[in-house]
Here is the input.
Amino acid sequence: MIEQQETPAAHSLLLGAHMSIAGGFAAAVERAERIGCTAMQIFVKNNNRWQGKPIGDSDVSTYKDVLVKSRIRAVLAHDTYLVNLCATTPEVLLRSRSTLKDEMCRCELLGITSLNIHPGAHGGKGSVEGIARIAESLNVLFEQTRGDKVNILLETMAGQGTSIGRSFEELRSVVDQIEQKNRIGVCVDTCHIFAAGYDVRTESGWNSTFREFEDIIGLDRLAAFHVNDSKRELGSHVDRHEHIGKGQIGLNGFRHLMNDDRFKHTPKILETPKGEEMLEDLENMRILTSLVENGH
Here is the structure.
């Protein structure tokens, strides 16, 4: 068993990883604590099934008790991979909306205010129609959960197949059509934006990328980062996560992230491959915190 680690993340950064909920939500907090996380991401049900078993009152209270005593200061949820808010078949679209609504309700129960989603894949219908259907889906769900505190984070995508979100412009188009705009944000995945063609390896590339983000979407909507290196090259449109510094982005890209004052308090979540002991998360977190320069 790994002993609890003290890292710089414990003191200032909101840094962590996606945690398994095997054994319950409280167990996920304990796993994150064990490796020194100050932020974490979880699924709120089995991520490969449309439906999940109900969350019991005791599960909620135990999770909240463990969380409040922990050093975890930011928790994000990630939706199931089955959800496609611009599915071309009515059955899949309805199931996607129903499943996402259930996950939003689960987040509300657990007190998780940010639910990250893959926007969807238009299946050949074109991005304009796909974007409109995603916005329509979210407007329906926001109306059905009016008064809830759960926000949806649209994840930047690598651009594989017909997926929506390969550019800041596509995400802005979704946001423009959302009625409850206070409930929509963006999660930037470093691997995905690099694979989509945004070169964040150099300082000038990093600055121009986030100048674009600010101009097109607005930095006030940037709510979280998925911190992943990329196995594939710039503009490949292939989503393959790699350990920090081992991929095509390299350490410099992450040095820019870790020293950008604008994102000092933005949760940063690892989604890199790992074993049960989470040694890979430990090493990736160590590398990221080592990139923080004095004064940051």
